[in-house]
């Protein structure tokens, strides 16, 4: 089997809540998502979705997905999409970095491998653990009482894990964390995710001020060293996200005992092949994970479900159903949240079919090899 053509479509995903706000005053109201189609000489087509959280979260941006595919695509025409090791080796040789661009190709090729073998991606990634995957809800940064009300409202919908977007003014963030925790039950989990927004001294003040609460602290500061300093001065369970962008940083953080949980995002790492490598390493090293992506709709949610469902339950801290945050459905067959949980499809590949009437026209085509 050979890759014959790579195309992409652009789709806008408005947010149900109108906007999503996080640290440093950053926000997005309509996501710009790219749906990638990898065609083969067998007639099988694989699909994927890449959707950066705006241009200011990770080193990624929406137009960069499309530009990167035009650069990378010609190197991949003629390769066997089922040989994911060879494919990733070729991608890394042809384009340095740009993990999010490679994600578009890699995930679509997992979809092809699943369709070619008649197996769901989660079976190919190690097998299905348990009946369903527990989800968290991200709580957009607004006033403390409004955030607590949103936590209570999403709890009514079945969620038991909440990720509070802090990383703003530290005094207000302390109020936010206290207000949110006060509406939860002892068995619920609350994560205060500062998304790199605090300086080290601000983070130190916040962790001391909420030391009596059952709360996880996620990525308080911009650099790994600042986070490590905060980690060494708190007993709160600690999550690293933005700084852990590959195996090198994962191993370094393990050696430094820098985290209890790590946030693995598919497009931050470069696709399902590299997410699986990091995931399997975390299981071997005893580190629990939030398994998700930067953002997306139905196709991203399907990929997350396959990665999460093939992870042993003890190491699955949370995952995300991004398709419930946006008003546009871009594919049929994606997981749908049920009482705070979702499950990976039993159909071959990702188990999704793009909704062509929702996707915009084809915005790029790569059909010739370099
Ligand atoms: Mg995070």
From TrEMBL:
Transmembrane segments: none annotated. Residues 144-237 form the Mandelate racemase/muconate lactonizing enzyme C-terminal domain. Keywords: Isomerase, Magnesium, Metal-binding. GO terms for molecular function: hydro-lyase activity; metal ion binding; racemase and epimerase activity. One of its GO terms (biological process) is peptide metabolic process. Pfam families: MR_MLE_C (PF13378), MR_MLE_N (PF02746). Its EC number is 5.1.1.-. Its cofactor is Mg(2+). It is an enzyme of class 5 (isomerase). The keyword Acyltransferase does not apply. Belongs to the mandelate racemase/muconate lactonizing enzyme family. This is 4-hydroxyproline betaine 2-epimerase.
